[in-house]
Amino acid sequence: AVICGENDPSSAPSVMRPIAEAMTGTNAVFTEIPDCGHFSAYEHPDQVAEALLDLVRRVQSEA
């Protein structure tokens, strides 16, 4: 999972999205959290948790 805040000044979505796209052959998915800065897990813990749970579900379904 590649997760970043919409307004993250140090890990901007424009930088993080290509990183996720380059992770071919993995379960990596890019998630941009709206109205969020750099501390997405602190600012929007429910959305970050859901993105991580989605990753776990996808990995488990392939096992």
Which features would summarize this protein structure in a list?
63 residues; two-stranded parallel sheet; alpha+beta
Briefly, what is this?
The chain is of the alpha+beta class and 63 residues long.
List the topology elements:
Elements: E1 2-5, H1 13-22, E2 30-33, H2 40-43, H3 45-62
The total beta strand count reads 2
Given as residue ranges, the uncertain stretches (5+ residues, pLDDT < 50) are: none
List the secondary-structure elements in sequence, H or E.
EHEHH
Strand content: 5-15%
Number of domains: 1
Mean pLDDT value: 95
Please give a structural write-up.
With 63 residues, the chain is of the alpha+beta class. It has one domain. The protein is built from 3 helices and 2 strands, in the order E-H-E-H-H. The protein has helices at 13-22, 40-43, 45-62; strands spanning 2-5, 30-33. The protein has a two-stranded parallel ribbon with strand order 1-2. The longest helix is centred in the last third of the chain and has 18 residues, at 45-62. The mean pLDDT is 95.
